[in-house]
Structures are given as C-alpha cells and as structure tokens.
Amino acid sequence: KSEYSFTEITEDFALPLTIGLSYKTNLTASGASPRCRFYARVRSLYQGRNIYTNLVINIPLVSGWTYAEATLENVLGKLNSYDLYLEVYDARGDFWLDNPKSIHSGQNWVRDPKCDNIKTSFTSVWFLVPKHRAAVELPEGADYGSIYVDS
After folding, report:
1. Do residues 93 and 31 make contact, with C-beta atoms less than 8 angstroms apart?
2. Torsion 91-117-135-70 (CA) sign
3. Number of C-alpha atoms within 13 angstroms, CB side, residue 72?
C-alpha cells in the first residue's frame, strides 16, 4: 500500500515575474465592456496592508495563433504571492490557449502540467486538495475544458 502525507511547501520567490501564453480567439462582444485577458494578481505586503498589482496580457477578441508575454519588475512592499487568471468578460465565442508560462526565481508546483484534465476533483483522503484549476465565476451557457495532443 502507498502512504501519502500532506506537505506544506514554503519558499520565497523574487521578481521579475514573467507570464506568457499562446492563444487564438474568435470572440464577439456581448456587452458594453468586452475584454479577454490573461493576468497575474501579485500580492505584496506594505505597512500592514495587502497591495495587489496586476500583470496583464490583453488579448484581442479575434486573433490567429499568437504568443504574448509580460514582465513585472517591482512591486510596492515585500513580495508575497500571486494567482493566475484567464478572463473573458462581455464576450461570447471561443478562446484557445496553449503553453501558459509563469517564470520567476522560485519553483512552480503545477499538478497538471499538460493541462489534460483541468476539471479533476479529488476524493477520499485528498478531498482537501483544491482542483487543478477552478472557475471563479462561470456564467450560464459558458464552459471550459482541456485536451492534450501529444505530437
């Protein structure tokens, strides 16, 4: 029998932080403020407050396959953590992405590096482990999924 145990991983990371991805879009506006973006929400600590700085890659509503990246060099206060987000707002259609990147001085701990099963839920002893990726908000009629093509 295998034995598993939870291990908290604590590490410092330093800037610069570079994010990037390849994408293809075929979206149409469905509201007053359409947008599509990939971004990191970076948290730093300054004078007893949480400061959030967004590192954003704005993605056009219609585009062939393109690669884009952005780099954050500094933040106010002591760097603490970051989360990555994909956002499609006031738009409908298709958004494909490939090879998302997050590069910094620390180690990235990705549980699903091939992004071939992003809706995995854990059960039994692992029920406390959050999903690989999860929708913050998923409006009615919206859906997301993943495939991995090994060429």
Report:
1. no
2. negative
3. 27
Question: Nearest 5°: CA angle at 39, between 13 and 126?
Answer: 65
Task: Report, as an integer, the average pLDDT of 96-104.
Answer: 88
Name the band, by pLDDT with cuts 50, 70 and 90, for residue 99: confident
Query: What proportion of the chain, given as a percentage, has pLDDT over 90?
Result: 52
How many Å apart are CA 62 and CA 116, to the nearest integer?
Answer: 25
- Backbone phi and psi for residue 73, each to the nearest 5 degrees, phi listed first: -95, -30
In 3D, which of 118, 115, 61, 110 has the Cα closest to residue 87? 61
Round to whole Å and give the CA distance between 96 and 109.
23
